Amino acid sequence: MYLDNKGLFDGFVGPTGVDNVYCVYGTQVDTAYQLVYRPPTSSIPAFPEQKPQLIMGDGDGTVDLKSLQMCHSWPGVKVVRIPGGRHRELVGDSRLIDLIQQIARVKRV
């Protein structure tokens, strides 16, 4: 999938030809940001059989905060952080829905 789409978008540059860009992401949810594998020994298997130690940090439960903040460098971007917003549940989060309705200037039904 990556190879099929890698030339379509450069995440470091950000979207072009769009008047208003919003970057919305969840924060304050434990998220793995590093996997640590120990050197193999007679009792510790080598990668990939070894279970890594997960180093946890801030993020949305799936994507770590450093990756989520990539959009901060985009020109003219409006960043909205949703504390406690989880990656998969964010699309149904009332705070995101309220933001979309505010941007679109519609009232919630």
TrEMBL record:
Signal peptide extent: none
InterPro entries, alphabetized: AB_hydrolase_fold (IPR029058), LACT/PDAT_acylTrfase (IPR003386)
Upper taxonomic lineage: Eukaryota, Metazoa, Spiralia, Lophotrochozoa, Platyhelminthes
Domain of life of the organism encoding this protein: Eukaryota
Coiled coil: none
Gene Ontology molecular functions: O-acyltransferase activity
Protein name, entry field: Hydrolase_4 domain-containing protein
Protein species of origin: Echinostoma caproni
GO BP field: lipid metabolic process
